[in-house]
């Protein structure tokens, strides 16, 4: 054990972890093993059965026994009792894609008489290798689910938000005409800017482009996406540094070079990403590659996860202090001359300014040790290992995105890759998960004139609520969502109050989630198996075609059809714009996704080779950019190779001959132009350390201005400038001494929707609050006790899970639970309030809009 600050002892390697008796016991109990987060090629059906499912037969009965399932659990072969059973022999198999995480697994769904028998992985994909995780069996449970919304609904009575709200079924025509009428009335009153939409990661690809077109024609600037509650900051930082806001490297073989990309890394540095549970199948590919290359793995996380359990080194800094850790690693690399001098000299702009900046602020490992609670020697070792293991790959996810300084933290991580020459190199890169299609999907040019639009609302935190409650900078009147803001947004109590007061709200979704009870109109959507289209592994830009597996449930529709239908309802009712303009802008042929996708391919830069026919034939996904049918798709962005230069030019003719797609054509750490651009918001091209005011230790933090300026990262919107370096107070910790953080409950769940499946609630329907045993003992809490986590904003309940693999000053509260989730009633699971009730929405990244889910002052009491 290594000392990590006063009274705190945190293991720094998985070998040390496994010597701890309690952690060894917990590892067995909670499945911290490779087979704990991935399964073999075949899993069982979609009913209410236990997760230990029957082995099922192979796709073709004539092929013999279903050997693929024989060792699915990693143990001895099992008998295939259902092999060649006439009633269970599939008569059809459909290829689709799992939509519950960014592994983007291909699924082969076996059917009999139109009913799903089994879901299997893709054996011919060398990354997937036939594997799936537990979530694959949840896909059919979204189809066969008694709680599905099946018809459009209209509010009849009851206060908004009340569980006793009454709704009546109406036709699609009536629902869409009601919405269209409301939107047009606001537009005609000069209030188009008070109409807003917020998309979600569950949307079929390209729906956002349809929403953007419709909002442009209405004249509203407030078409927003899920980025501020997901992972926008990483993409923003990558774009500012390298030119494109996307994950830089790919899983598997690069078709252009024939070389393994991320599998060839010699060192993996994972910060704030529990890939074993959030990206299980692609993480398993990294583990297989690691056996071959002997690559080392360092995991940075305040708590031990299944990812940290398989690492060579697990370090546990205070929540919200990764920024300091990365600055110190960068300082050590620069001062010790561990950087790639040849690469820096040829391809990096601003290195001398960076070196001066690091020295001026004295961002040394010794300084960072005081901030993070880590050992300075450990920080130096991490820096040296990353800089000298060629190539080395950085992975980040929500653990970094959900921080107050997300954009600046990601920028420093990008600097690490740049100065060590780990960018534009197979096995290296900045693999920051981003949530949207890279570069957007383009429709044919809009011929109709569009009105001028005023500025959009700030991008964060959930400014919808602030706008509705205060009228600053103006009050929203009508909102449409494809997600569930009553669970996903910070300061849930405030968001509830706002949606109670919202004039008109349209909820689209699969179930009567918490947000649906605030709606005026409810629209039922399809699940992933009920539609065809594409699904993307947003991590490495890898896209799959998915076929429709089963008929749509009830009258549910896919989202793109909803928006096209709304456009045609607007055409019928609009007295200002000719109906022909709406109909030409949204041709009915786009109701067929194949037609819509063909137009995306024809009009989106870098996509000329991503045709439906080509993707349908592939066992592996195809990576963007892919400009021609002959192009293999790009695995390693910025690779000094003809395939990359061809792809770069296809994105913009101005990129011809450029390796990096910045104005200089090089990696930009510092330029006067970037400095000026960021200065209006209080930031600098070379980041200065600050952190959340509720991190213990009186750290430098920030203060927000009440004024608005144009956001340089999201120039369609405004933001509040900040003043950095404001001394922290730490007074909040007199009453709330611990630091809380939220995150995914386990590998079982993905956002809220999996909580509506029987298996999801059977396996993980209890909210386990992770507390260090020493902390629990001082509070009189035992393992399994009912507890309440309290913050200055509110409280939520859960069950204590005493876990030595978490910092004693930190508490982990699983998110995505909500009080409307009925599926858990079958197992007598509690109905929990949203974890985000605990969070302070005043603090957010004013560049990306990211909400600060990863730190809040709290205390835990036994109930």
Automatic annotation (TrEMBL):
Gene3D superfamilies: 2.40.40.20, 3.40.50.740, ADC-like domains, Dimethylsulfoxide Reductase, domain 2. Residues 91-147 form the 4Fe-4S Mo/W bis-MGD-type domain. Its main location: other. Its cofactor is [4Fe-4S] cluster. Residues 1-20 are annotated as: Disordered. Keywords: 4Fe-4S, Iron, Iron-sulfur, Metal-binding, Oxidoreductase, Signal. The keyword GTP-binding does not apply. The keyword Oxidoreductase applies. Belongs to the prokaryotic molybdopterin-containing oxidoreductase family. PANTHER family: FORMATE DEHYDROGENASE-O MAJOR SUBUNIT, TUNGSTEN-CONTAINING FORMYLMETHANOFURAN DEHYDROGENASE 2 SUBUNIT B. This is Molybdopterin-dependent oxidoreductase. It comes from Streptomyces thermoalcalitolerans.
């Amino acid at each position: 054990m290594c000392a990590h600050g006063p009274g705190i002892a945190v293991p720094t390697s998985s070998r040390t972890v496994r010597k701890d008796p309690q952690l060894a016991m917990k590892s067995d109990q909670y499945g911290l093993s490779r087979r704990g987060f991935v399964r073999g090629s075949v899993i069982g059906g979609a009913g209410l059965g236990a997760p230990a499912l029957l082995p099922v037969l192979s796709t073709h009965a004539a092929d013999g026994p279903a050997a693929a399932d024989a060792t699915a659990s990693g143990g001895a072969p099992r008998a295939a009792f259902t092999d060649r059973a006439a009633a269970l022999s599939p008569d059809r198999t459909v290829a689709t894609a799992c939509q519950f995480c960014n592994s983007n697994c291909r699924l082969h769904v076996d059917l009999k008489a139109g009913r799903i028998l089994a879901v299997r992985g893709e054996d011919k994909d060398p990354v997937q290798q036939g594997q799936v995780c537990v979530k694959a069996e949840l896909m059919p449970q979204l189809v066969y689910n008694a709680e599905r919304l099946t018809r459009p609904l209209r509010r009849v009575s009851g206060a908004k938000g009340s569980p006793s709200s009454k709704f009546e079924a109406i036709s699609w025509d009536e629902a869409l005409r009601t919405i269209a009428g409301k939107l047009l009335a606001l537009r005609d009153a000069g209030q188009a800017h008070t109409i807003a939409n917020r998309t979600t990661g569950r949307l079929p690809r390209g729906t956002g482009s349809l929403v953007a077109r419709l909002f442009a024609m209405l004249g509203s600037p407030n078409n927003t996406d899920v980025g501020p509650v997901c992972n926008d900051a990483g993409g923003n930082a990558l774009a500012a540094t390298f030119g494109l806001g996307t994950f830089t490297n790919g899983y598997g073989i690069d078709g252009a070079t024939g070389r393994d990309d991320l599998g060839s890394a010699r060192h993996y540095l994972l910060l704030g990403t529990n890939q074993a549970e959030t990206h299980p199948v692609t993480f398993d590919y990294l583990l297989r590659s690691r056996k071959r290359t002997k690559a080392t793995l360092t995991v940075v996380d305040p708590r031990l996860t299944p990812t940290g359990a398989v690492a060579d080194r697990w370090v546990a800094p205070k929540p919200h202090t990764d920024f300091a850790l990365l600055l110190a690693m960068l300082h050590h690399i620069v001062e010790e001359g561990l950087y790639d001098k040849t690469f820096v000299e040829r391809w990096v702009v601003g290195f001398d300014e960076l070196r001066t900046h690091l020295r001026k602020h004295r961002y040394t490992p010794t300084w960072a040790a005081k901030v993070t609670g880590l050992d300075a020697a450990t920080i130096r070792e991490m820096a040296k290992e990353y800089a000298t293991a060629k190539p080395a790959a950085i992975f980040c996810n929500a653990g970094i995105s959900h921080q107050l300084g997300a954009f600046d933290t990601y920028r420093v991580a990008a600097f690490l890759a740049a100065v060590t020459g780990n960018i534009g190199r197979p096995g290296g890169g900045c693999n920051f998960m981003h949530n949207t299609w890279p570069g957007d999907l383009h429709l044919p040019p809009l011929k109709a004139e569009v009105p001028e639009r005023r500025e959009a609302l700030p991008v964060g935190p959930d400014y919808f609520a602030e706008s509705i409650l205060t009228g600053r900078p103006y009050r929203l009147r009508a909102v449409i969502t494809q997600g569930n803001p009553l669970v996903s947004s910070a300061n849930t109590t405030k968001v509830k109050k706002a949606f109670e007061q919202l004039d008109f709200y349209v909820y689209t979704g699969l179930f009567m989630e918490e947000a649906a009870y605030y709606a005026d109109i409810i629209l039922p959507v399809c699940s992933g198996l009920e539609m065809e289209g594409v699904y993307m592994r947003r991590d490495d830009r890898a896209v799959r075609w998915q076929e429709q597996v089963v008929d749509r449930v009830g009258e549910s529709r896919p989202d793109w059809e909803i928006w096209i239908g709304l456009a045609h309802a607007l055409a019928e009712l609009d007295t200002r714009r000719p109906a022909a303009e709406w109909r030409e802008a949204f041709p009915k042929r786009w109701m067929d996704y194949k037609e819509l996708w063909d137009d995306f391919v024809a009009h989106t830069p870098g996509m000329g080779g991503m045709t439906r026919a080509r993707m349908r034939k592939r066992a592996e996904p195809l990576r963007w950019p892919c400009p021609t049918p002959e192009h293999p798709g790009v695995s390693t962005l910025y690779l000094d190779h003809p395939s990359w230069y061809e792809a770069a030019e296809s994105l913009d003719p101005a990129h011809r001959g450029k390796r990096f797609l910045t104005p200089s054509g090089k990696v930009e750490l510092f330029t006067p132009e970037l400095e000026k651009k960021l200065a209006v918001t209080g930031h600098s091209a070379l980041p200065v350390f600050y952190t959340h005011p509720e991190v213990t230790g009186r750290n430098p933090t920030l203060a927000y201005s009440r004024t608005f300026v144009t956001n340089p990262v999201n120039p369609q919107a405004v933001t509040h400038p900040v003043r950095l370096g404001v001394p922290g107070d730490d007074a909040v910790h007199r009453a709330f001494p611990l630091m809380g953080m939220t995150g995914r409950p386990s590998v079982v769940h993905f956002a809220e929707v999996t909580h509506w499946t029987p298996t999801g609630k059977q396996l993980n329907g209890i909210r386990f609050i992770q507390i260090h045993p020493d902390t629990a003992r001082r509070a009189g809490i035992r393992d399994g006790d009912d507890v309440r986590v309290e913050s200055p904003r509110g409280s939520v309940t859960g069950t204590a899970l005493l876990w030595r693999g978490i910092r004693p000053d930190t508490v982990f509260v699983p998110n995505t639970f909500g009080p409307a989730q009925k599926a858990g009633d079958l197992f007598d699971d509690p109905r929990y309030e949203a974890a985000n009730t605990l969070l302070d929405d005043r603090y957010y990244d004013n560049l990306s809009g990211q909400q600060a889910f990863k730190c809040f002052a709290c205390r835990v009491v036994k109930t």
